[in-house]
Amino acid sequence: MPTVDMGYKPREQFVPFHMRTERWAALVFHRRAGKTVATVADLIDNTLRCPLPNARGAYVAPTYVQAKDVAWEYAKRFSHAIPGVQFNESELRIDYPNGARVRLYGADNADRMRGLYFDHMVLDEYADMNPAAWNEVLRPALADRKGSAVFIGTPKGRNAFYEVCENAKTNDDWYFLKMGAQDTGIIDPEELEDARSSMTKEQFATEFGCSFDSAVVGSYYGSEIELAYEERRVGVVPHDPALPVTTYWDLGLDDATAVWFVQTLGKEIRIIEAMEWTQTPLTQIASEVMNKGYTYKDHVFPHDIRVREMTTGRSREEVMRNILGKLSIAPMLDVEDGINALRTLFSRMFFDAAKCRTLVEALKNYRKKWDDKRKVFENRPYHDWSSHFADAGRMLAVTYRESIVQDRERYGKKRASKSSWAA
What we know:
The protein is an alpha/beta fold. It has two domains: 12-207, Rossmann fold; 224-419, Nucleotidyltransferase, domain 5 (2-Layer Sandwich), CATH 3.30.420. The chain is 37% helix and 22% strand. The chain contains 15 helices and 17 strands. The strands form three sheets. An eight-stranded mixed sheet has the order 3-4-5-2-6-7-1-8, sandwiched between helices. Helix 2 (35-49) crosses helix 3 (64-77) and helix 10 (282-290) runs parallel beside helix 11 (316-324).
């Protein structure tokens, strides 16, 4: 191909990144450093230079809307000078004359990429993504053509992005670069001081200092999860065949369905496994749950399982009862009350580190919605990939809360306080 000037002029901080030879890369930069611009240009360049026929490049943001808002204009700007290039606005896709293609995606619908192949990939704000998207869909898509990937973002606690960066530091096949605002000099010092004065210490350390040690800002359960690690309640929690299992569900149709698998012994709440399905029929999910070989005590669902299907006239409750055999519906409770109820149970909860890895990450990232205009957190959760596991956890919490109320009505407050887990 002839040499074409893309119109991209890299900031000096990103020149070493563009000169790298490693297959994988992890970049940790502060806000407004230009990491998205640099990696979009890098994605286009690497895709066009790929020696394999019909090369494919993918830019992946936490959501499809974010991908469009953040990267689409940059991708078009850096491609306009290429003769014969074609832009598909509806699919956020750019087709190049040599058969190469770059397309934008959202990790919130990772199944859309299942079965595709890619030669180069950028995962922007990886800390906000469901780690399962990389493990189950994106990494396999790079395998047969030995494609490469770049992980970029700003820290949000010690989550999956932190683990990627820790691995990159010591692995010869990885390029790693971390630069806070004090390192790049990109943000004017007076502007930094103004930001510092208007932000919390944790916010500033995360957004401009690139600190992984600060908790996820606005997290509902961040401190509870950190304490669980300190008290070694995240580790090996095996299934005990002598104890029955109760499942707690959050239902999704166009969204994800999440399930907790829980055993209890005395005051201990043992979460032995957690699973999530995307765009999968409930009948298939129920069959997979039943085929796990556990002895079930109950299956607890939110109230919307009573909704009837337009095509059959049957409720999802009827369909699931036919497969699961037993089923309970959790009492309706305000979301905020449910969150507080789950917090009261955390000190008694044990998580299997391997089978609940994504669940633990979700609970750390489940956070309040930020109102950018008023610069305050709203009193409601931000809906993203972490919401499904957190909502399933509320089914556990409100069920325990209801059982406490019933105990007190049946036996009196004194007896209930001695026997109830959450008293």
